[in-house]
Every structure is written in C-alpha cells, then in structure tokens.
Amino acid sequence: MVRSYGYLLKKFPRLSETFILNELLAQESLGLDLQVFSRRTPDDEPRHAELASLRAPVHAVPHRRELDPWRTLFSNGGEAEAIFPRLGRLVREAEAWNLPRLSAQIAEALYVVRRTRELGIDHLHVHFATESAVVAMLSQELGGPTYSITAHAKDIYRSTVDWELLDVLFQRAQFVVTVCQANATFLRTGVGREAGSKVRCLYNGIDLETFPCRLDGRQPSHLLAVGRLVEKKGFDVLIEACREMRELGVFFRLSIVGEGEERGTLESLIQDYDLGDRVSLLGPKDQTAVRELLGTATVFALPCRVGADGNRDALPTVLLEALASG
Q: What is the pTM of this model?
C-alpha cells in the first residue's frame, strides 16, 4: 500500500533550518509526494534559492487563537461521535503530562486530523521533540496519522526538558531519529527502555555536489563562522580569541554569518575590543552566499559551548558543509 506523508513543523521555511529543506528535497528525489504544515507564520528573512525546487505545498495551520475546537470537531466529516471517546480518554490521560496549553494543542490536533484526512496523509514527521511533536501525538491519539520525530539539540539538552513527556512522545512514535551517536546515547539514558528502543541515529546529510572542495582562491587570513547569534554558538569566545590574536600580531579577518538575540552583545564586544576593522557581523545569508564564503575562507570556526540553560549543539550541519568545502 502506498503511504502518503506529511511534515508538521513549527515554521517553514526557516533560514537557519537548511537541514529540513535538504531533507524534504531528498525525500522528493526518492519519489515521495509530500505535504508540509507550518504551525506558525515564517519569519521575514532571506529564502534559500533551493526552496524554489520544492514541490510540496505548504499549508498554514491557523493560529490557536483562530481555532474553535468545537467547530473543528463537528466539521470532521461527521466523525465527532468516533472522536469523542478518544478525546475524553486523552484529556484524562493528559492530566499527568504537565501541558499548560493543552486546550490550544488539542484544537490544533483536531485541525490536523481533519486536514490530513482530507489530503490522504497517514504519517507525519516532526522536527524537534517540542510542541509540534505534542500536536502530532495528540492528533494520532484522536484518530489521525501516525508520527515520527527527529530530535536535535535544544529540544533535548535544555534544563527545562520534561523527560516524562519525552518518554510518552517517544513511546507512541513510530520511530525517533537523532543526528549523532552522542544524542542517541543521551536520549536512551534519559527515557525508559521502550521509548529508548525507538531511537536511532541518522546524520543530517548534505549534497556534496553543492559544496565542492576547492583549494584554490583561498584567502589565508579569512576566518569564517556561521550560525545563529545565540549563547551556545560561543561567538563571544571567538571574538575574545580575535582580540588575543591581534595582540599577538596575527593578521586576520573574521566574518560571522547569522542573526539572533546576541547581536547587541557581540557588537559591543567588537566595539570594546576595537575590532571593527577585523570582525564583521554579516547578518543572515542564504546557502548560495554561504557556499561562496566557504569557498574563500581558510579557517572555519564554530566554538560551541554549553549554555546557562543546558542548551548545547549536537552536530551542526554547517560543520559538514565546511568539511565538504575543504
């Protein structure tokens, strides 16, 4: 039997989540017809040129303030009577799951059940074991499609992660993918045996043809860093290292690509250390621009560290891109 697949994502497209776009394109190249659900309006930011190659339609899930669960329930193709017993059991069971937005999540789940039936989707994949995974699980329990999860980093390492809820999400998923062996070991240690048995490692792949290794045209003094401007990326450490290099008389030029909440802090550091002529914050760039920079830089630096909230990186895709680029 041919299965129909969908992706349920918080926001799509997203400039920083090239791994999701790459995965969708790879799935389509294998012959799958996909549907994508975006639970939130995408940010106003540059778009990757590769997005134009995606055939999958992107469906906007109405914001929870716009969803009436009763209207959604009774417009579910006349199946309210079948859903009601499931809904009662689910609400009673969810009392133990510490879900402060349960009513809104159920409203989203009911919408997802209806739309996936209309579109003939019988399996959903979710990136990040966070609220989208909860909505996918609730949808399944209300009679919707099965689901699976890719776990990354912020969704498993932060101190606020609810391991009991993670155990429930993993147990009921068809499978759980994570992006490196360290993650897989960490997850299997944190959840129960049944949930841990669902976890497998599947690295984020990249298309090597789009990141050719060129050794000519390099600028020996050019350092490059790419990532969101957030604590765990450690860009403040990198700027501190630049201060020390300048004091040692080392000539260099650092380009940092990305945007985020730490921009103001990093700008202040650059100013305080008088590095304005050496360090540039280039803002967000699409993959085409990043590939060009990877082709000219000699050193790629990504000094990831553990944040105050426990958040950390696992295996950033940009490291693979830098290696592929030489």
A: 0.92
